[in-house]
Amino acid sequence: MRKYLHVLNIGLQNTFVYRWNFLLRCLFSFVPFLGAIYLWGAVFNDPGKKLAGYDMASTISYFLALIFLDSVASPTEDDFQIAGEIRDGLINQFLLKPVNYFTYRFCLFWSSRMIYTAVTLIPIVCVAYLSRKYAVFPLTLDQWALAGTAAFLSACLQFGMAYCTALLAFWLLDISAPTFIVFSIEFALGGHLFPLDMMPAPLYQAIRFLPFYYEYFFPLQVFLAKASPQEMLQGFVVQIFWVIFFFVLGQAIWRAGLRKYTAVGG
Amino acid sequence: MPAIEVHGLTKAFRTYKKIPGFLGAIRGLWSRAYTATLAANDVCFSIHEGELVGFLGPNGAGKTTVLKMLSGLLYPTRGTATVLGHIPWERENAYRRQFALVMGQKNQLWWDLPAHESFELNREIYGIERKTFQKKLDELVDLLEMREKLNVMVRELSLGERMKMELIAALLHSPRVLFLDEPTIGLDVISQQKVRQFIREYNERHRVTILLTSHYMADIEALCDRVIIIHQGNIFFDGRLSEIVNRFADSKLIHFQCSDEPSTSAMERFGSVLENISGHVRLKVQRANVLKVCKQLLEEVPITDLNIEEIPIDDVIREIFSQQSALGSRKLAEQRAQSAPRKAGG
């Protein structure tokens, strides 16, 4: 276990080397947020106007929470790094050493998540303070704990999905096509574009069983206290299912990939 | 019991043969012709604990393939191998704690951090005790004279310095078997010599079994008493370095200095003339004729100085390889004529 704590430590140090890179990244993650504010400002042109149960205040809260969730839970370059390590044969050193590659990457993922969260926290607090008239955030400790759990599970899920996509590098020279496809679906069906419950009810009900829903929309519902206890329970069960699913799938792809990489029977 | 034992190790790779041009690329989408390449063919050898063996062969001879199989990165198509009693490709932790592979062209250190950080990570990965680790690190750093560079970012190190750091990283867990794949590639002469000297000293001090591949004959000559030569997947020599010359070089070199300048045509009757510049002549003479030719020369030519030498091992090996490849490509052409490439879908 201690070796993986050390991986976490070295990952943190390595992120600090690229301080300008991640500072800019954190700052510019607010651009889509500003875009969303302007867009939705135009939609809700007169105060008090509501659309599918949302008004200006709840929309701003939604998108603000979304950027925060993004920095807590979304992998930045992990998939391309993993694919690169496979393509360039750098995974050799993990096969030679007594270390588990998945756990190793998982620790590196958390180290970059920790720093991104710390850095985006400052502007988020500022924006939240400025828009305090609108923003609705969890009030009780329980709510924070539940939202934290959902965000943690979302991070595990997103890492699991990125890991599975990245491992396609065992077969493909370039993984940017599958990565981009997954990213586009995530963007639409995860709730990046608009809150998913604005969709027609049957569609919304169907989407609730897909993993994308649990990457963003579900944790946001918990955070914004919009999920009933029953919805929350059901949501956590499905979210945990998807996390386990992608972790197990990741192991299977890794084994299959390794069979090809080491040319078993080839 | 030998540290490394290899029997009939064979690796065949299936390679896709692309038909040239754009149309070929399109056709390749559904119909592909594959050819099987034998990267290693029935390789057998055994190496005793503490031996330092050189693994020689031209590019693509199969040296790296064998090293990869011995370190568990590749499964063999056929054959067996044991290293320290373990089957490498099972990749047991007990085996992984006892060996290391260093590839001259691959970097295992964290690029943006000082090498010391990568060493600390290795300490945790291999579970080395702090005291043991510090002692080992001190020893390696002093041997390679790298103490001052420990806290410099890896990307700011020179190629030679980086190679030394790679060696330190690979040796921290005190492996009993070490595979070195081109450890001196791209290094300047001085760094090459330093790395060489280190490998020798480390092998003597710790009785580590080392299998080393290199393109530089100087590496092999300086380090290895025993060499294994592999060519097109086959082993064709396994023995002492000095034996190569006896076995494969059927000529010797005679150098001499004359007081006048003899004509090349006059000299050709003694042997093939390699050099003839202002009275300095270099002749290649059949081993059996050397004494006879010397006697004749001393009688007929006004010689002021004379020297008999073995052909440099470098040249002998180059000669063997070029003969072998001519032979090999003839064989290959015959094989091709006999069987058209196998076709497979997908």
Give an overview in words.
The complex is a heterodimer of chains A (266) and B (346). With 266 residues, chain A is mostly helical. Chain A has one domain. Chain A has 13 helices and no strands. By secondary structure, chain B is α/β, with parallel strands linked by helices. Among the domains of chain B are: 166 residues, 3-Layer(aba) Sandwich (Rossmann fold); 57 residues. In chain B, 38% of the residues lie in helices and 30% in strands. In chain B, strands 5-6-7-3-8-9 form a 6-stranded mixed sheet, with helices on both faces. In chain B, strands 4-1-2-14 form a 4-stranded antiparallel sheet. The longest helix of chain B has 26 residues. The radius of gyration of chain B is 25 Å and the shape is globular.
Which helices and strands, and how do they pair?
The complex is a heterodimer of chains A (266) and B (346).
Chain A: H1 2-17, H2 19-28, H3 30-43, H4 56-73, H5 78-87, H6 92-96, H7 101-130, H8 141-166, H9 176-189, H10 201-207, H11 211-215, H12 217-223, H13 229-261
Helix pairs in contact in A: 1-7, 2-7, 3-4, 4-7, 5-8, 8-12, 8-13
Chain B: E1 4-17, H1 21-27, E2 31-47, E3 52-56, H2 63-70, E4 78-83, H3 93-96, E5 99-103, H4 115-126, H5 130-144, H6 159-171, E6 177-181, H7 189-206, E7 209-213, H8 217-223, E8 226-231, E9 234-240, H9 241-248, E10 251-258, H10 264-267, E11 272-277, E12 280-286, H11 290-300, E13 303-310, H12 313-338, E14 342-345
Parallel strand pairs in B: 3-7, 3-8, 5-6, 6-7
Antiparallel strand pairs in B: 1-2, 1-4, 2-14, 8-9, 10-12, 10-13, 11-12
